Amino acid sequence: MALRVDVNGERLWRSINEINEIGATPAGGVRRLALTDDDRLARDVFVDWCRGAGCEVSVDRIGNLFARREGRDPSRAPVLLGSHLDTQPTGGRFDGIYGVLAGLEVLRTLDDHDVVTEAPIEVAVWTNEEGARFAPAMLGSGVFAGVFSLEEGLGATDPDGITLGDELVRTGFAGEVPLGGRALDAYLELHIEQGPVLEADGLTIGVVEGVLGIRWYDITLDGQEAHAGPTPMGPRRDALLGAARLVEVAHAVALAHTPEGRATVGVIEARPGSRNTVPGHVSLSVDLRHPDPEVLATMDGELHDRATEAAEALGLVLAIEPIWYSPPVAFDPALVDAIEAAAAGLGLPSRRMVSGAGHDACYLAQVAPTAMIFIPCAGGLSHNEAETIESAHATAGAQVLLRAALARAGA
Ligand SMILES: [Zn+2]
Question: Rounded to an integer, what distance in angstroms lies between the CA atom of residue 188 and that of residue 403?
Answer without folding.
Answer: 11
